[in-house]
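Project outcomes to date are best conveyed with an example. Our students and postdoctoral researchers have been running inverse folding experiments weekly, and each run begins with a structure described purely in tokens. The record below, which covers 191 residues, was selected by the lab manager from last quarter's runs and is presented without edits.
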């Protein structure tokens, strides 16, 4: 039986700490600090809509209007670009590994030679985008619009295209080993 308020508070605090999730539960979240250089480069990008070869690692560009932006060779690893407008953007040779581009617009963007390993592009408009010679291993294109996109010679190993629209897409020379097609079937082309 609890005899006073202090005993009750101790019990509540102890119960709180016992119910906290373990460190493993937090493993899915990234708490890495954004590099100072990336913060400075973000300022440049906002002013000029251009930041080729710059470090924008871990930055949050959610809902930014970057239509026609020049980000060729930029490092956007683990950046968040949810609902971002990148129509006609130049992302040639950019590092977009583990980037989140969900529900964004990249219609007509040039991503040739880029690294999109484990990128999330679900529900994104990628109509007419160029992914030639791009590394798309493990990328998620669930429900993406990829009409007339160019995937020639892209590495699509374990990429996920469930319910995506690939109408008119160029897949010539693409490696599609263990790739999930829009129908949900696996393909083993190029394994």
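After processing, the design step wrote out the following sequence:
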């Amino acid at each position: 039986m609890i005899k006073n308020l202090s005993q009750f508070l101790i019990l509540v605090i102890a119960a709180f700490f016992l119910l906290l999730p373990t460190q493993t539960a937090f493993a899915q979240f990234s708490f890495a600090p954004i590099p100072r250089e990336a913060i400075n480069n973000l300022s440049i990008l906002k002013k000029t809509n251009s930041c080729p070869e710059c470090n924008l690692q871990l930055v949050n560009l959610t809902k930014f209007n970057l239509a026609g932006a020049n980000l060729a060779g930029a490092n956007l690893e683990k950046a968040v670009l949810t609902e971002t407008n990148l129509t006609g953007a130049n992302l040639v040779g950019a590092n977009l590994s583990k980037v989140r581009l969900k529900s964004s617009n990249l219609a007509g963007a040039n991503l040739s030679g880029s690294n999109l390993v484990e990128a999330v592009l679900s529900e994104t408009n990628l109509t007419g985008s160029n992914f030639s010679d791009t590394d798309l291993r493990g990328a998620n294109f669930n429900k993406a619009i990829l009409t007339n996109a160019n995937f020639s010679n892209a590495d699509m190993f374990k990429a996920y295209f469930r319910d995506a629209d690939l109408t008119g897409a160029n897949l010539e020379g693409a490696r599609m080993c263990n790739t999930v097609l829009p129908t949900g079937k696996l393909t083993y082309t190029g394994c």
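The radius of gyration is 21 Å. Strands lie at 176-180, 186-189. The training component of this project remains on track.
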